Amino acid sequence: MKKILIVPNPYLENKEDIIKRINEILFNNEISVFELSLNNEKNYKELSKTLKDTDAIITLGGDGSLLRVAQDAAKMNVPLLGINYGGTGYLTSLKKNELEPLKKLINNEYYIENRFMLKIKLDDNYEHLVLNDVIIAKKDVDVPIKLKVNEEEIYYGDGLIVSTPTGSSAYNYSAGGPLLDAKSRQIVLTPICPVGRKNSYKIYDDKKVLNISSIRDNRDEALVCIDGLKPILINNKSTVTISASKYETKLIRF
């Protein structure tokens, strides 16, 4: 490796100390290290341009920090290495107080773990990659939402979670969904607080395409949240299409 991008969570305290230590480990071994903080939309939009000549990304924070750059990293075929800063860190490889293994990057003493991703389309005007999950949740706390999936199933309750194997250990598991092999290529659909508790989860292979829409009336608005990003408001005329992506997230492991 010759060039590594550090992407810190902009809200971390004392992140400068960690960045300095990473520089000490890698820069002295002729690896160029530079930083890009995603503290505004302009920087976020410039991320893909920055990755054109980058060999790896190191994220500082928790899983959310890694998820935020997963789409651009996958599209540019750049591997990710997460350093956990104290929060949830299932996807991260190191903790902030154990950085010595970074020296293994110098001699290529690591391996790449490929993670299956999904693609979501909202109608025909929005598309995004998914490493963890898509949550379609009711907008109003006191009103259940009725969702139709592929003309086959109707779910009535607080919403649905569509998860990758990577995300199966997150909200999906908390909602009663199954834990999938993280290296598999499966899709799990889990209802959130279904009325009557009659609906259980469903597991599909990577050939399945899910078309999800509301079937009530124009009061039935929902929020779509992708990998913890800012929710998108949709109405009963919208269709959410979820399918397997041709891209994969590449995680650096030691």
Structure description:
The chain is mainly beta and 254 residues long. The chain folds into two domains: 3-109, Rossmann fold (3-Layer(aba) Sandwich), CATH 3.40.50; 117-246, Probable inorganic polyphosphate/atp-NAD kinase, domain 2 (Tumour Suppressor Smad4, Sandwich). The chain is built from five helices and 17 strands. The chain has helices at 15-26, 41-45, 47-50, 63-75, 171-174, and strands at 3-8, 32-35, 56-61, 80-84, 94-95, 111-122, 126-130, 133-138, 145-149, 153-157, 159-163, 186-192, 202-205, 210-214, 222-226, 232-234, 239-253. A six-stranded antiparallel sheet has the order 7-6-17-14-9-10. A six-stranded antiparallel sheet has the order 13-12-11-8-15-16, with no helix packed on it. The mean pLDDT is 91.
